[in-house]
Amino acid sequence: MKKRIVSMVFVWMLFLSVLLGTQFSTVAATQTGKVIIYDNGHAPHIDQYAAASFINVMREYGTVQISSSAITPELLGNAMLLVIPSPDEAVIHTAAEIQAIKDYVENGGALLIMGTYYAYFDPSFYDPITSDYGIKWVDGSNSDMNDNDGAYLYFVLFDTFQDNELANRLKVGVENIKMSGTALNITVPVNVTVPVNAINVTVYPIVTGDDDPGENRTVTYDAGYEVIFNGTDVIPLAGVELTGGGKIIASGSDFFIRSDRYGFFDHNEQFLQSMLDWLLRAHHFGVTLGGTTYNVTILSNSTVNDFNFSQPERQISFNVTCTEGTTGFYQVNIPKALLSATPIGNWTIFLDDLNITDFAITESQKYTFIYFTYNHTTSKVEIKIIAGIPEFPIWPSVLLMLFLLTLGATIFKRKMQSLAKQSTDGDMR
């Protein structure tokens, strides 16, 4: 009797688990979500541990992949940002890797590339990557007798921001940038679009050294302490835009993202956040709910406006405008504390009231990342959590009730049979 009941319970539980699993399966996506790649495969001086805080900030924008492999077209095919800290001279980038990086940038990719001072760096590491875009690298070290952090002359506080579109955007809320490293040699006219080797580029110096009197001016010197640049000719940081949509931030300092020592990241956090916003084309929208403000971030190469959040409809909506003939891409980063779907397949997207299924969803501990593309010029996007799949679906509930009734009936029948047998046995005595 007991064995029969146990067997029946097992069969019913197996059936219910299969049914529940079917009810809660996630929607398969045909697209693949984009990632941020941190190049850790060339023995960088600022590895993922030294840059841990910066990497955590990048995780607010999307999935971060710490790559220990070679840089290939396949790796970059899924990248929305490639971060290259200064490599060790024993494992510099190969010709194939350099070509993959250049192809990636020229096809709309974003690159943060960082050098360091002469003892651990040579311009030949990076010139093949960036010289076609108007930037070469200097074999030197920056120093300032007056504008430094008070500990070392070569921990320079750069505060001479340039007057151009990019510098004006990145300097908001920033007094200065703490950097230790070398300078850049910009080889094209700045702040204007110019052709370089059949590629149109615009180079923006972001910050420079200063022309303080005498020995107080900023200098870049070589290993023999001979001055290479001084004053405002010292350019440690610049941005580049390519007409194909590619973006580059070139920094003579990889220390400026460092968080394990010397306080660089804490000093530069606001600037680094603004820099990532520019590289990743981020649009931020604040949503206040229950007295708490949540930040919804949309990464896109298109114009985004008319953002709206509806709690009753469990929905985020916005309008997008994409240049005709181009493909618009979007990654919407939604805080789980604001809006969360369980299972993940309950998310749905409408483009001009048309339900689209070609999108990718990934998650972190704090965010849901929804990525999709489209080819229209102007559209309304609605991202919502679908209703209709209750927490306990009705069919499993009905079947569970039938199981319990069957079990109860079986036990009752066995009990009545037992009582009848006892009554018969009593008559025989």
Describe the structure.
The protein is α+β, with helices and mostly antiparallel strands and 429 residues long. The chain folds into 2 domains: 246 residues, Rossmann fold; 103 residues. Helix content is 25%, strand content 32%. The chain has 8 helices and 26 strands. The strands form 6 sheets. Strands 1, 2, 3, 4, 8, 11, 12, 15 and 16 form a 9-stranded mixed β-sheet that branches. It starts with a helix and ends with a helix. The C terminus is likely disordered.
The top level CATH class name of the largest domain: Alpha Beta
CA distance, first residue to last residue: 26 Å
Count of β-strands: 26
**Beta-strand residue fraction:** 25-35%
Structure keywords:
429 residues; alpha+beta; Rossmann fold; 5-stranded antiparallel beta sheet; 8 helices; 25% helix
Compile the SSE list and pairings.
Elements: H1 2-23, E1 35-39, H2 52-58, E2 63-67, H3 73-76, E3 79-84, H4 95-106, E4 110-114, H5 127-130, E5 135-137, E6 141-143, E7 156-158, E8 160-161, H6 165-170, E9 177-179, E10 184-186, E11 193-196, E12 199-208, E13 219-221, E14 227-230, E15 237-242, E16 247-251, H7 264-280, E17 282-289, E18 292-300, E19 303-310, E20 315-321, E21 328-335, E22 347-351, E23 354-356, E24 359-363, E25 367-374, E26 378-385, H8 394-428
Parallel strand pairs: 1-2, 1-3, 3-4, 4-16
Antiparallel strand pairs: 5-10, 6-13, 7-9, 8-12, 11-12, 12-15, 13-14, 15-16, 17-18, 18-21, 19-20, 20-26, 21-25, 22-23, 22-26, 24-25
Short account of what is shown:
The protein has helices spanning 2-23, 52-58, 73-76, 95-106, 127-130, 165-170, 264-280, 394-428, and strands at residues 35-39, 63-67, 79-84, 110-114, 135-137, 141-143, 156-158, 160-161, 177-179, 184-186, 193-196, 199-208, 219-221, 227-230, 237-242, 247-251, 282-289, 292-300, 303-310, 315-321, 328-335, 347-351, 354-356, 359-363, 367-374, 378-385. With 429 residues, the protein is of the alpha+beta class.
